[in-house]
Design goal:
By secondary structure, this protein is of the alpha/beta class. It contains eight helices and 18 strands. The chain has helices at 2-16, 20-44, 206-212, 238-258, 280-291, 301-307, 325-334, 366-370; strands at residues 48-53, 57-59, 64-72, 80-89, 95-102, 107-115, 121-133, 140-142, 144-145, 149-154, 191-194, 216-219, 228-232, 262-268, 271-277, 313-320, 337-345, 358-361.
């Protein structure tokens, strides 16, 4: 609009004041958009935008910042650059957009976006759109976006005030062979099948092989692999997921403090991911994976866990934002563990399940709730 007003004024000047000056002014106003666009073409070819984070990981409520770096040619500086950034938490619930404007600059310019998160998760800063404008703001062209940045906002690593039983402290607790039902002990044959190359001769069923005229081998079950197992399931609310991550982190580092190994299962695409840990480094790697997961899972995590033939464990700790009585009954009947503890994180009073294995965990009194947990 401003350019049109100036162009109209130049046209009136050319009409009422005949001469070289009015002619040159009007001609310059006519070709000015072309010159401006050509400058933009030359400048945007050398322009780029990238995001960086001041820190790789921070604690909750600790300040940090995302830095948006814009680069242009020194010979043909970009007249104006507008960048739209999106800051989101992978655990869901928080997405903010900001519009940043870089005025005429040559070389490199940096704008800092201060941040502070009250919830844990993987915070990502993504440049959604970057466009360069000409001097007259009549034309715009897209500018290359090189990379995004991410910061892990970590939950507390303070060990939970949960009770650790004497059995957990035994040196061979992780390799414990549990008394299991038929079919869960490898020494207890519960099925037979045809011999396959590589099967040990000690598992051949000689009498049955003689009757059927072919080699028949015994199949056994599985013993306990890890005696403590976590099943972590997130929901759709950020505060619930923050409570889930805090609960898992504090219990995991309690086990690390006592040198007790464990295994963690979590939803990953259309299946369950798993990883064991027995030290701070492995526990931190698992935390980063969990903080990066999008929620909620698109498949029934508990049902898939029950259907798979996991090795039986001594204690299964199921951390979830919801668990219906039907799901709880199915979990207890599945026999995946000798003992089951369900930690309902962030649930409301009316949604609680009255059962001795269910412990509601409130974000506002986390220590009191975790003190009821016995590992």
């Amino acid at each position: 609009m401003a350019y049109l007003a100036v162009l109209a004024a130049g046209g009136l000047f050319f009409i009422f004041f005949r001469g070289y000056l009015s002619y040159l002014v009007f001609l310059f106003l006519l070709i000015l958009p072309v010159l401006s666009f050509v400058w933009l073409l030359l400048s945007f070819r050398f322009a780029g935008v990238r995001a960086q984070a001041s820190k790789a990981a921070v604690e909750k409520k600790e300040p940090f910042s995302f830095m948006i770096r814009a680069k242009s040619s020194r010979l043909f500086p970009i007249p104006c650059l507008r960048v739209t950034i999106e800051i989101s938490n992978a655990l869901g619930g928080e997405t903010e957009r900001e519009l940043l404007s870089f005025p005429f600059f040559a070389g490199e310019a940096v704008m800092e976006q201060p941040c502070r998160s009250a919830c844990c998760g993987k915070l990502s800063c993504t440049v959604r759109r970057a466009r360069g404008l000409d001097f007259l703001r009549l034309f715009s062209l897209p500018v290359r976006v090189k990379e995004s940045a991410a910061v892990f906002v970590l939950p507390s690593r303070t060990p939970a005030p949960a009770a650790v039983t004497e059995n957990c402290l035994l040196p061979d607790f992780a390799e414990l062979s549990l008394p299991t039902a038929p079919g869960n002990d490898p020494s207890d044959p519960f099925d037979v099948r045809s011999y396959q190359p590589g099967d040990p001769l000690s598992r051949i069923h000689w009498k049955l092989s003689a009757k059927q005229g072919e080699w028949i081998v015994r199949e056994g079950g599985s013993s306990a692999e890890r005696s403590i197992r976590f099943l972590v399931e997130c929901g759709s609310q950020l505060l619930e997921n923050d409570c889930i991550m805090e609960t898992f982190s504090r219990l995991a580092f309690l086990l690390v403090e006592h040198g007790i190994p464990a295994q963690v299962f979590w939803p990953e695409d259309a299946e369950l991911g798993s990883q064991g840990f027995d030290g701070e480094e492995e526990a931190s790697e698992i935390l980063e994976v969990l903080l990066s997961r999008s929620v909620p899972p698109a498949f029934p995590v508990l049902e898939l866990f029950r259907e798979e033939h996991w090795k039986k464990c001594a204690h299964l700790i199921y951390i979830t934002p919801k668990c219906s009585p039907e799901r709880l009954t199915g979990l207890l009947e599945a026999g995946n563990a000798e003992r089951v503890t369900v930690l309902l994180c962030g649930t409301k009073q009316e949604q609680e399940i009255s059962h001795d294995v269910v412990i509601p965990v409130r974000p506002d009194r986390l220590d009191d709730c975790l003190a009821e947990v016995e590992l």
